[in-house]
Design brief:
Elements: E1 4-12, E2 16-25, E3 36-44, H1 51-56, E4 67-72, H2 75-83, E5 94-95, H3 116-128, E6 135-140, E7 143-149, E8 155-162, H4 164-173, H5 183-188, H6 198-225, E9 235-239, H7 243-246, E10 254-256, H8 260-275
Parallel strand pairs: 1-4, 4-5, 6-9, 9-10
Antiparallel strand pairs: 1-2, 2-3, 6-7, 7-8
Helix pairs in contact: 3-8, 4-6
């Protein structure tokens, strides 16, 4: 009989807080499957947290048996989640604040300064990749990161650039006349390339500029950083809040995993719980 574990994972970013309920088969640790997603929701960082919705996920089961973990790139936001945690209905979350216990070798100049979300992505990538296969991870969020996991499974580093929302806000806040373009507008209609007005010109730059940057970074990392490391074609993963915008336009064998960070968090928590 398989032994399953439910986990409520929370990723606190700079703009949003994501909640996800997962289930894992603890006897299938060597499989290439990530924890199964049962429910998911999110809220803006400044909005009330959706406790009633989350509690409704546990109808017929005991929420207190669920392993609860929180991590993210926003320490103040994590503190807010923990401080406002509902008493007696859900287990108090374990805070994952650093990578000390991660099942991951980090081969960069200052390992402790790498964003925890980037490392959680790498942990999840190691579950998905083949033995001896490198991985390139595109994470489109407030910032967009394009990172490399070596063929031996170690985190090699990567690149960071402004994401859709950060780019839109920068254009608006640091100019006198340019309007703020909501990222949701980019989801409604494919932006024209040749803008005939200011709004369309900004939409074009935000969308096609971000897409072009990601394509070029993947190409450069594949050709330069990984050219001599392995004969196996790298696995390319796409995740993050803006990943659905990029997915239809990225050619080749790119695997869409929109909740990779949270699934990596669940794997880390399983490892830490086993160690205890």
């Amino acid at each position: 009989m398989s032994q399953s574990l439910q986990q409520l994972a929370i990723d606190v970013g700079n703009s949003r807080i994501k909640f996800i309920l997962l289930e894992s088969d603890l006897q299938a640790k060597e499989s290439k499957q990530l924890p199964l997603v049962l429910h998911t929701c999110s809220s803006l960082i400044e909005k009330p947290l959706p406790w009633k919705q989350i509690q409704s996920w546990f109808k017929g089961t005991s929420a207190m048996k669920c392993q609860t973990i929180v991590a993210g790139s926003n320490p103040r936001g994590i503190e807010g989640v923990v401080d406002n945690w509902p008493d007696g209905t859900l287990p108090t979350p374990v805070e994952i604040l650093n990578s000390v216990d991660f099942p991951l070798e980090i081969c960069v100049d200052e390992p402790r300064k790498v964003g925890i979300d980037r490392l959680l992505n790498a942990v999840a990538a190691n579950r998905l990749r083949n033995s001896g296969q490198a991985t390139i991870i595109i994470d489109s969020g407030t910032a967009t990161t394009v990172d490399v996991v070596n063929p031996d499974g170690s985190f090699a580093g990567g690149t960071i650039l402004p994401g859709f929302e950060l780019s839109a806000k920068a254009l608006h806040h640091y100019t006198a006349l340019l309007p703020l373009i909501p990222v949701d507008e980019l989801r409604q209609v494919e932006p024209v390339v040749l803008g005939k007005n200011t709004t369309d010109a900004i939409r074009s730059g935000l969308f096609w500029g971000q897409l072009g940057a990601v394509r070029e970074l993947v190409s450069q990392l594949r050709d330069q950083s990984l050219a001599d490391s392995s004969q196996i074609v790298p696995l390319v993963l796409l995740t993050g809040g803006g990943s659905d915008l990029l997915a239809p336009y990225l050619e080749g064998s790119i695997q869409f995993e929109p909740l990779l960070t949270l699934q990596g968090l669940a794997l880390v928590a399983q490892k830490m719980n086993g160690a205890r």
